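Notes from the 1:1 (GR / supervisor)

We went over the backlog. Supervisor wanted to see one worked example end to end before approving the batch request, so GR pasted a single chain during the call. The sequence is below; no edits were made to it. Supervisor asked that the structure be written out right there so they could see what the output format looks like.
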Amino acid sequence: SKATVSVLNWRSRPAAAPLAAPSPGRSLGHTAASPPSAQPRAATLRARRPAPPPPHAMTGKGKQRINCLTFNQDCTCLAVGTDTGYTIYTTEPPRKCYEKEIEGGMRIVSMLFRTSLLAVVGAGIPHSPRQLQLFNTHDDQNICDISFQDTVLNVKLNKKRLVVILEKCLHVFDLQKMAPLQIIDTEANPKGIADLSMVEDNSVIAYPKAVVQGCGDVMVVDAMRENKNVHVIRAHKSSLSALALSSDGTKLATSSVKGTIIRVFAISPQGKTDAPMIYSFRRGSSPANVYGLAFNEKGTHLVATSNKQTIHVWKTDSVVITGSQSDAPGGLTDTIRNLAQADRAWSTFTSPSPNTNNVVSISKGGKVCVATMDGHLFQYALQPGECKRQGEFVLDP
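Structure output shown during the call:
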């Protein structure tokens, strides 16, 4: 499944110099194109006070259908894709800072940290779900098109790599040169489950790879060097529902379709093939559909959200479980051992939008951010016991 790359307005940019953000005084939705420049501009996306919506705009609490919600890599921004386009919000403080109307709507919107580079995938005619576009919000320009033979299910970015997840393969690109590097064949992955760590020196990709059919095995590969630092982790007896890498790529969190136990594995940056389980956390005793997992930037806390009303936070820097691969799936003995080892949550809180799909992340400022598909952004203080709600923001995409 090869990809066709069409470079439109691309200029090679070092990782330390992200694409420029909208400058003061410009209309965010209709930014004039900047003149070509041989030197990249280092700038970040800054929040602007949004103009009032027109009288006919559908705003608030699901009146305009939301297709996707994605926090950026450090939880400083939230991207919202809708059936009419997409909107970018800052999280601290919550504020709309960019919006663009797109005919047919967007099904994937992914940011590169707090820069003006977006990776977007359309929801249908005229923008095919098999085509990924890299868009510069500063120049209001589409700078690169990449066409695939199958639907794009997920997109992951860091400063040096772009990973595009299809159902049966991953495409890895050099983001600075926009050059294809490798295609990784996978098992059927209809949910597009995968993650990419943020630190370039230890950039790894994690994705489901069932060694035994129906099992929740995970493959971890080096994103910078092909076929290097490969880990095969037997995480669960059942297939995976979610996974997440810590920012530095040294921890991997997983959950299965049962959703009762969350496991964390240690990923060695030295090329060792073993990846021991270091934590086994109990989410609950009844099955649940785990929507997502996320570490904070330092990898010291892990948050999980599901279709149950409770959101869980665990500490991942305290006393660890000394275990090995034998602590993962097995027979009755393993089940008893896991139950005995499972640590209950360090903190919990109740979702104000039960039975509503949501995404979760932890900000640099120590807030747990929960964005819901019914159009809300909730923020909670990261603290032991019960996280206290600190704010609620209505998303008006």
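Supervisor's comment: The first strand starts at residue 4 and ends at 7.
Batch request approved.
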